[in-house]
Design goal:
mainly alpha, 3-stranded mixed beta sheet, 10 helices, 57% helix, globular
Length: 305
C-alpha cells in the first residue's frame, strides 16, 4: 500500500530492519499458536511440542505471510524505481494480534507521480506480485491441511469467510466435507487466506489505496465518485459483518485526513492504453477472487455426535 507523498527524509535503513525483525518475532509467535491449533485437530489430540519445536513450527506461517506481504510491497518499490520515483523500502508492522501478528506493510512515496501510466503501474504492481506469491502458498497450505471431525461444542471458535479462490482450492483438494467435519487449516493455508484478504483490502478503489491509484488512472476525476460509493458500500458491509468495522473506520479517517480526491497527475485527461485497461480488468478479477463479505464470524455450528 502506497501512502501520500512526503518530502525526502533522512535515510534510516535501521528502522526497516528493526520493524522487519520485530514482525518476524510477532508472526513466528502467532504462527506457533496456529500450528498448535492445527496439531490439536479441534481439541481431539494433545499438544506435545517442546519450546524449540513450538517456535520453529511458527515459521510455517511467518515465512509464508512475510513472503506475500514482502512481494506486494517490493512490487510497488521496484515499480517506483523503474519510473525514477523516490520511495522508501517497505515498513513491516508488527502487532500483538491473535490471528495475524502483523498489521501488514507499506512503503512511502516521497514525490509526485507525474503520469497516469506510472501511477497505474506502481499501483497495480503490488497486488499482482502478492497475488502471484499467495497462490502457491495457498496450494501448498491446502495440501498440508486435513479434514477433521468438529468437536461437539464449537463455542469460542471463529469461522473464516472464504474468498472464491480459497474456496475453489479447498474444494479441489478436499471436496465438500461431510456434516460434522471441517477443513483443519495448516498455518500456510491461513497465511494464504490472510494474504488474499490483504490483497482485497488494498484493491478497494478508495483514495490512496492501490485500488484508488488504479481507479484514478483509469477514470481520472470520476474516481472520486467511485471512492464515495465504495465507502458507502463498506459502511453497508459493517451491518453484514462487524469484522468490517475497523477497516471502515480506518478508511473514513484516511479520507478525512487526506481528502477523497486523488492527487492529480500532469496528464489527467490522457486515457490509458488498451493494455493497461485490460490489466485494470484483471485487478477487478483479483479483487473478486480475494474478497469475502464476512471475513471473521463466530463459529456457531454444532457438530453432530
Amino acid at each position: 500500500m502506497g501512502f501520500p507523498f512526503d518530502p525526502p527524509p533522512r535515510r534510516r535503513p535501521w528502522r526497516h530492519i528493526v520493524l522487519f525483525l520485530l514482525t518476524v518475532v510477532s508472526t513466528v509467535l502467532v504462527g506457533a499458536e496456529h500450528y498448535a491449533s492445527f496439531h490439536l485437530d479441534f481439541g481431539s489430540r494433545p499438544v506435545d511440542l517442546s519450546g524449540t519445536a513450538f517456535v520453529l513450527n511458527g515459521l510455517w506461517y511467518s515465512a509464508s505471510i512475510l513472503a506475500i506481504l514482502g512481494a506486494h510491497e517490493f512490487g510497488h518499490y521496484f515499480a517506483c524505481k523503474y519510473y525514477g520515483v523516490d520511495a522508501s523500502l517497505p515498513y513491516f508492522l508488527p502487532a500483538p494480534l491473535p490471528l495475524t501478528g502483523t498489521l501488514g506493510a507499506f512503503i512511502r512515496i516521497r514525490q509526485m507521480i507525474p503520469s497516469k501510466q506510472a501511477l497505474f503501474d506502481i499501483g497495480i504492481a503490488g497486488p499482482i506480485a502478492g497475488f502471484l506469491v499467495a497462490i502457491p502458498v495457498l496450494l501448498a497450505g491446502m495440501s498440508l491441511s486435513r479434514v477433521t471431525p468438529l468437536p461437539p461444542d464449537t463455542t469460542g471458535f471463529v469461522e473464516l469467510g472464504e474468498p472464491l479462490l480459497f474456496k475453489a482450492v479447498a474444494w479441489l483438494f478436499w471436496g465438500t466435507p461431510p456434516d460434522g467435519y471441517s477443513i483443519n487449516m495448516h498455518p500456510m493455508a491461513f497465511a494464504a487466506w490472510f494474504g488474499l484478504l490483504a490483497t482485497a483490502l488494498n484493491l478497494f478503489p478508495i483514495g490512496q489505496l492501490d485500488g484508488g491509484h488504479i481507479s484514478y488512472a483509469v477514470l481520472g476525476r470520476r474516481s472520486t465518485l467511485v471512492t464515495f460509493g465504495t465507502v458507502a458500500g463498506l459502511i453497508g458491509l459493517t451491518f453484514l459483518s462487524m469484522s468490517w468495522l475497523v477497516w471502515t473506520v480506518l478508511t473514513v479517517v484516511m479520507l478525512l485526513a487526506f481528502g477523497p480526491r486523488h492527487p492529480r497527475t500532469l496528464d489527467e485527461n490522457v486515457p490509458l492504453d488498451p493494455g493497461r485497461r485490460w490489466l485494470a480488468v484483471f485487478a477487478l478479477v483479483m479483487f473478486i477472487l480475494c474478497f469475502t463479505p464476512a471475513p471473521i464470524e463466530p463459529f456457531d455450528i454444532v457438530a453432530r455426535p
